[in-house]
Input
Amino acid sequence: MAEETIFSKIIRGEIPANIVFQDDTVTAFRDISPQAPTHILIIPNKLIPTVNDVTVEDEQVLGHLFVVAAKIAQQEGIAEDGYRLVMNCNKHGGQEVFHIHMHLLGGKPLGPLLSQ
Ligand code: 5GP
Output
């Protein structure tokens, strides 16, 4: 059984977060340490620790993350200019919270994908 993270508590409303969208499948909230004018995390309500743990059963949930990302980008007014979706995996990917999450970043030109 995977260990819960702080994100499970955010999903259940047990700790505060600036939630911008929630349904039965996913929750989206503003990143506590934004790296761009818009920085929102979109996460499955089901705990999946890393992308390595994704299975065929998760396909619908993961597809829904993209549908919600596109909807939020419209709401934030960044859809036309564009934005970046990022999922980090494990140490080399820079993953810090082991409950998969899609970063939605935008609101300014983001530059090259990698800085080095
Ligand atoms: P990772 O590096 O795992 O891909 O990204 C984790 C993200 O979660 C980071 O951008 C970090 O700022 C954000 N984060 C970590 N703890 C919290 C929290 O308690 N609340 C919110 N809103 N964001 C968090």
Summary: Residues 6, 17, 29-33, 41, 88, 94-97 surround guanosine-5'-monophosphate (CB under 6 Å). The longest strand covers residues 38-44. The first helix runs from residue 6 to 12. The chain has a mean pLDDT of 97.
